[in-house]
Design brief:
The chain contains 13 helices and three strands, in the order H-H-H-H-H-H-H-E-E-E-H-H-H-H-H-H. With 302 residues, it is mostly helical. It has two domains: 86 residues, DNA polymerase, domain 1, CATH 1.10.150; 180 residues, hpI Integrase, Chain A (Orthogonal Bundle), CATH 1.10.443.10. A three-stranded antiparallel beta sheet has the order 1-2-3. Strand 2 and strand 3 form a beta hairpin. It is elongated, with a radius of gyration of 22 Å.
């Protein structure tokens, strides 16, 4: 291995070291691999191809970005550990002289409540709504879509029913500052949405002034934030989950489950609508088919 080796070549050599010298399991190796491929992709997106060109500020920027995307704090800490060990390996092997990760502080863990749901906890909440009654069908469709698309609560409540394109399995979302983005929808969410649109929404819409809004309250009007919060709180209690959950928790869980599964940063950023913030302006637009492929491959309910 030489100083002119590419990151990919160095990473392959590092894998061998972890597997044969350190005796890591295949599962642990996979976690390291996801973390480091994401890190290298981030660096190369900034035009950095040499280990000695990496600065501590680059690593801090990535950690901030992972936090902003909602990655579980334990996973953020593991990412930083992976990066530290990778740079330590490169210095020990005389591949580079610089170790920019040496003095970066480890993020502190939050209080007793997790910021992210496990896949099992998501399933428990989804199993609660009573699908034998119209509002139960609506509620299940709302919860599924919130998690399936990583939506902000304001985005979920503002979606119009003609924004969902069923043949393509996507939805047009209007985010902050009126910026539109395209997000894939998983098969489970689509099935529940079809049932709601076919069996429930027409009756609700006849009661009020829907103005083409997708999800309606019992009076046929646009649902309020507080209205949805009460619905969510009820189902969390019925699922016997003694944890603090907010609508935004589903957005964080969406991002974490995709990133933990191995999805690349740029695709997750695009789906979350983060492409306009300063830390992500370096990335190019991701095409629709690529997003759908990433979604199907890495989302738990894709």
């Amino acid at each position: 291995m030489t100083k002119n080796s590419t990151f990919t070549e160095i990473l392959e050599q590092y894998y061998d070291s972890l597997l044969f010298d350190k005796g890591l399991s295949r599962l642990s190796l996979e976690s390291y691999g996801n973390d480091l491929r994401r890190y290298i992709d981030f660096l190369e997106g900034k035009g950095i191809v040499s280990p000695d060109a990496v600065k501590a500020s680059h690593i801090r920027e990535l950690i901030i970005l992972l936090n902003d995307l909602g990655l579980n704090i334990s996973s953020v800490i593991r990412n930083l550990s992976s990066i530290r060990n990778f740079h330590k390996y490169m210095v020990n092997e005389d591949i580079c002289q610089n170790n920019p990760a040496l003095h970066i502080e480890t993020p502190k863990k939050p209080g007793k409540y997790p910021a992210v749901l496990s896949v099992e906890e998501v399933e428990k909440i989804f199993a609660v709504p009573d699908l034998s009654v119209p509002l139960g069908i609506r509620d299940r469709a709302m919860l599924e879509m919130l998690y399936a698309c990583g939506l902000r609560i304001s985005e979920l409540l503002s979606i119009e029913y003609n924004s969902v394109i069923f043949p393509e399995g996507i939805v047009r979302v209007i985010g902050k500052r009126n910026k539109e983005r395209i997000v894939p929808i998983g098969s489970s969410a689509l099935e529940n949405l079809k049932k709601y649109l076919g069996d429930v929404r027409p009756e609700l819409a006849a009661k009020g002034k829907s103005k083409n809004i997708l999800f309606l309250n019992s009076r046929g009007n646009k649902m309020s934030r507080m209205g949805f919060w009460k619905i969510l709180r009820k189902y969390v209690q019925l699922a016997n989950l003694s944890i603090e959950i907010h609508p935004h928790t589903f957005r964080h869980s969406f991002a974490t489950h995709l990133l933990e599964g191995g999805a690349d940063l740029r695709s997750v950023q695009e789906m979350l609508g983060h492409s306009d913030i300063s830390t992500t302006q370096l990335y190019t637009h991701i095409d629709r088919e690529h997003l759908k492929q990433i979604y199907r491959q890495f989302h738990p309910r894709g």
